[in-house]
C-alpha cells in the first residue's frame, strides 16, 4: 500500500470515528435517589460552570470528545473557555472544580455511589445504577 493510500485510509477512519462521537446522544445523570425528575440545560450548566453547588459535578478528561461535545451543547462554551473559567474560580477560592474521572464507566460509578453527584455519559451507557435527567440537544 502506498503512503498516499495509507494517509487517505487514516483520514477516512478518523473522520468516521469523529462522526460517530459527534452524533452520540449525551445524557446528564444523577443518583437514582435524587428527587429531580428532570433538569434544564441552564441548571446543568450552572453546576458544571461553578454557579451552583447543589450537586457535585463529575467530569471526563479534557481530551475526551464526549466532554467537548457536552460543554459545547450544554454551556455553549468550548473546553478552553471552561478551563479558563475554572482557573479564575479556583484562584479566587469561589469554587471547587469538578472531579475528573477517566471514562464514562467511571462517571457512572461515581454518580451511582454519591447521591449528590451529577455527570454526563453517552445514552447507550445508561442502566439502573443512574437516572437520566437531561439529554443534550
What tags apply to this protein structure?
disordered N terminus, 5 helices, 137 residues, single chain, five-stranded mixed sheet, D-Maltodextrin-Binding Protein, domain 2, 5 strands, alpha/beta, 46% helix
How does this model look, in words?
This is Phosphate ABC transporter substrate-binding protein. Residues 1-24 form the signal peptide. Keywords: Signal. It comes from Steroidobacter gossypii. With 137 residues, the protein is of the alpha/beta class. It has one domain: D-Maltodextrin-Binding Protein, domain 2. Helix content is 46%, strand content 16%. It contains 5 helices and 5 strands. The protein has helices at residues 3-22, 41-48, 65-75, 79-92, 104-113; strands at 26-30, 56-59, 99-100, 117-122, 131-135. The protein has a 5-stranded mixed beta sheet with strand order 3-2-4-1-5, sandwiched between helices. Mean pLDDT is 88; it is low at 3-21.
Describe the SSE topology.
Elements: H1 3-22, E1 26-30, H2 41-48, E2 56-59, H3 65-75, H4 79-92, E3 99-100, H5 104-113, E4 117-122, E5 131-135
Parallel strand pairs: 2-3, 2-4
Antiparallel strand pairs: 1-4, 1-5
Rounded mean pLDDT is 88
Strand percentage lies at 15-25%
* Biggest sheet overview: 5 strands, mixed
Query: Runs with pLDDT <50, length 5+?
Result: 3-21
Which sequence of strands runs across the widest sheet? 3-2-4-1-5
Structural class: alpha/beta
**String of helices and strands:** HEHEHHEHEE
CATH topology: D-Maltodextrin-Binding Protein, domain 2
The CATH class assignment is Alpha Beta
| Helix fraction by DSSP (H/I, runs of at least 4) | 40-55%
Overall shape: it is globular
Q: CATH homologous superfamily, by name? A: Periplasmic binding protein-like II
Question: How far is the first residue's CA from the last residue's CA?
Answer: 42 Å
